[in-house]
Amino acid sequence: MERTFTYPISILFLTLIIKGSCDCSLNNINIGTRRSGREIQGKPEWNVTVINNCSCAQSQIKLACKGFQSAESIDPSVLSMTGDSCILINGNPLNGFATVNFSYAWDPPFLLLPTSSVLVAPCS
């Protein structure tokens, strides 16, 4: 009798551990912006770091960037605009705990916020 009760508990426990390790969301996409100290065409340059603070890769990361402008060019393979959204690294996966960086020049700085992403399976 004890054995039949132990197996379901073990399976439930392992399921919760596996599910918990890949419970990622937009809250795991963190964006930091800091001034570089340079000026481009009279505008301050800002260095942006996007971090995936989750063990799972996330792809199709979109940022709200309504009105986003830059006096310096940004590599479109890193950040490209489509309407009021920007897509990061052409929608390719940003691996768990990985970062992507880009710089732009404008005044004032833009508040870039993640609006959507897709979890990439399998997740470690």
Kindly describe this structure:
16% of the residues lie in helices and 41% in strands. The chain has one helix at residues 2-21, and strands spanning 29-40, 43-52, 58-64, 79-82, 85-88, 99-105, 113-119. The longest helix is centred in the N-terminal third of the chain and has 20 residues, at 2-21. It is elongated, with a radius of gyration of 20 Å.
Topology at a glance:
Layout: H1 2-21, E1 29-40, E2 43-52, E3 58-64, E4 79-82, E5 85-88, E6 99-105, E7 113-119
Antiparallel strand pairs: 1-2, 2-6, 3-5, 3-7, 4-5
User: Helix content range of the residues, please?
Assistant: 10-25%
**What is the SS-derived class?**
alpha+beta
Helix count equals 1
CA-CA gap between termini: 35 Å
Biggest sheet: strands side by side, in what order?
4-5-3-7
Q: Which sequence of SSEs, written as H and E, runs from N to C? A: HEEEEEEE
The Rg value, from CA coordinates, equals: 20 Å
Assembly form of the protein? single chain
Q: Biggest β-sheet, characterized?
A: 4 strands, antiparallel
Mean of pLDDT: 87
Question: How many beta-strand elements?
Answer: 7
Shape: elongated
Strand content: 35-45%
Low-confidence segments, given as residue ranges, are: 5-20
Main attributes of the structure:
4-stranded antiparallel beta sheet; 7 strands; signal; TPD1
Offer a concise description of the structure.
It contains one helix and seven strands, in the order H-E-E-E-E-E-E-E. The chain has one helix spanning 2-21, and strands at 29-40, 43-52, 58-64, 79-82, 85-88, 99-105, 113-119. InterPro entries: TPD1.
